[in-house]
Amino acid sequence: MDMRDRFFFLKHYLYSRRFFLVMLFLLLGVILFFAFVFYESKNLLEYVALVLCFLSALFISADAWADYKAYRSQLLYAAGNPQTALESLLKEKVALLELDRKNQVLLEQEKYNDLLDYYTLWAHQIKTPIAASSLLIGDLKDQPAKKQLEQELFKIESYVNLVLQYLRLESFHEDLVLKKENVQDLVKEVVKKYALFFIQQGLSLDLHDLEQSIVTDKKWFVVILEQVLSNSLKYTKEGSIEIYFQEDTLYIKDTGLGIQDADLLRVFERGFSGYNGRLTHQSSGLGLYLSKKIADALGHQLTLESQVGRGTTVKISFSEKKLVFE
């Protein structure tokens, strides 16, 4: 029990014994008054007052200790018996409310699990027509149309994977594998996946100082890289993307649209697309939210800086953070 609990007990104990304490002070006041009026009996009356104070202190101490133990048991273990009819009624109502709450929680959990199962099944099933479409696109002779369709199909698959990753956040720690990973290998793996977009948009790529080791979960960290790089490509129409490692921090820097100051504080909120998302109609409002959740759970620090018209720099820091286990 902390000081707040003890203060709460003391306040309510004194309030519950207020009648006794008031009568005690009145009695002591009467005795002292008579001691003042009847001076010849002063010593006797003062002795009586002293004995009364001593006995009252013993009684209050024993009563307070017994009440404190009952309060502590109730606070820690919810153990205790009602002393009055009103307490019995209140305890019964509390028990009924607690039962209703538990039933409601179970019902909501069942609904959530059903919804989770449905979307997980949907995400897995839609991968089949995506794979079939990819094969059909491979047979096209019109190269410009083929490249455009490949790009759009890649976006569809990325959004499906985003849904799956969002659903898997609930079981984040169940398949977590932490070990040393090479930053350059991770970055190159993601960049290779998005190579088509660099070619189509004519963007240059600058990778340097990436021969570093970090402790992370490869699968989840790649998710962060994919979401950040996808955003950079989405909002960078010309120029370049630079990725480098410096002082325990990975930087992903682009020359894109940039983010308005009013949106900067909200970019990691779920469902927030901001001005750029509304302008291009390309934002789900989940990518950066998902990345931030994963980074926090892995013990990494994800932040960004941006200027409108000059681009955005995303920083993933690996220092002074500990992995969070729930």
UniProtKB/TrEMBL annotation:
Protein name, as recorded: histidine kinase
Gene Ontology MF term list: kinase activity
Lineage, highest ranks first: Bacteria, Bacillati, Bacillota, Bacilli, Lactobacillales
Domain of life assignment: Bacteria
Catalyzed reactions per annotation: ATP + protein L-histidine = ADP + protein N-phospho-L-histidine
Annotated EC: 2.7.13.3
Membrane topology per record: Multi-pass membrane protein
SUPFAM superfamilies according to UniProt: ATPase domain of HSP90 chaperone/DNA topoisomerase II/histidine kinase
